[in-house]
Amino acid sequence: MLYKIELENFYSIREAQVLDLSVSPSLEDTRGRFAAIFPGSTIRTPKVVAIYGANASGKTTILRALHFLSSFISSVNVESTDFRQPVYTFNDEESRGKPIRLAIELGGITNPQRDEVDDFKPEFGTLRYELVLRAKDGKIERVLWEAMRQRPNGTGRWQRVFERTAEGDTISVKDSDVFPMVGLKHLLKTLRPDASLISTYAYFNHPTAGFYRETASRVSSNVDRRWDFISGDNALLGFIGQQPELLKRLNRDLSRIDVGIEELRIEHIPHLGPQGRFLHSGLHEEMPWELESRGTQAFVRLFPQLAFVFDKGGVALVDEFDTLIHPLVLPEILRWFYDNETRNPLDAQMWLTCHSATMLEDLVKEEVVIAEKDSAGRTRIYSLMDFKALRRDDNLYKKYLGGAYGGIPVIG
């Protein structure tokens, strides 16, 4: 479970911002909103993280950072000419000459190099991944620092897994028992200055690197439109049509949340490709995809992303969660993440941005993050947990709209 993120000089974030979503062990949780950051931990974190703020306040920047790190670690770019995920510093003269700094902390397995042993018993704790890089014109010029650390059982000092530094054209790496490089240091010659050590060594079948890359790949995101096929819905329909079980799950939920829809049927038509047809009760003919409501289309686009993390136990990054989807459907999707019995047995998380203030009536303060931008264009981020006087019975909806927490547009 992801519980902490640190950002500095990344898009609209100039000064270092730290967002720690650790939830107190003493807080009662009757609805299953929180999950232990690793099995057996007393520290928990929300399964749903909702980011609020005015337009252009930097909400998406938080999701973009998580998506960037996931792509950077999991992409196999050993032989490619450049890393395609764009990355920018804060847009002023001083910041453009400074490095970008990113870090995340999460719970996970701390002995992954033994996962192929027959009697393997996973040991859990906390992991910290740090990345410092220099960027220009939206591209990585050089990774200045990349490191993974761990705390077995989530206690004690951080222990090195690996540390990668750059001095001029020389790349140096310190390994560990968890990330051994015996007989593999020659692979440093293949390590590009703009590539991840994890992705590079995973490419050459380093077991620990492969484990970390696979973990990073369990992030689904619509920030780069990978799961949002607005410009090519045929690709979406083709993807769903090739997975009968996914289509079955989708139809089960469509019939619950969309009045009158009995089934989405997908067929391949020569020269046209996959075509979606909606069967509505009471209608003589099926409704083609392009004539279906935009809200239903948005739900279908979102569904594979959610199904992916429920199956993998990963993190869904959903930008503009409330766009087009009915306000009464939004809380239902939140409840899916709270449902460990049938929907979310692997404790998948969802980080989302939205504007729908009414959804605050279905959230608690541990789940709410605010992004606010000052007159100089600098974003700061904070959790409602930072408001110590905020009581459990306070109406988040009314107080947010009243400006008590910030993050609302100032008109006029």
TrEMBL record:
Gene3D superfamilies documented for this protein: P-loop containing nucleotide triphosphate hydrolases
Alphabetized Pfam families for the sequence: AAA_21
InterPro entries registered for this protein in UniProt: ATPase_AAA_core (IPR003959), P-loop_NTPase (IPR027417)
Residue ranges annotated for the ATPase AAA-type core domain, each copy included: 48-357
Superkingdom to which the source organism belongs: Bacteria
PANTHER family hit by this protein: ATPASE AAA-TYPE CORE DOMAIN-CONTAINING PROTEIN, ATPASE-LIKE PROTEIN
Protein's name according to its UniProt entry: AAA family ATPase
Organism, scientific name: Asticcacaulis currens
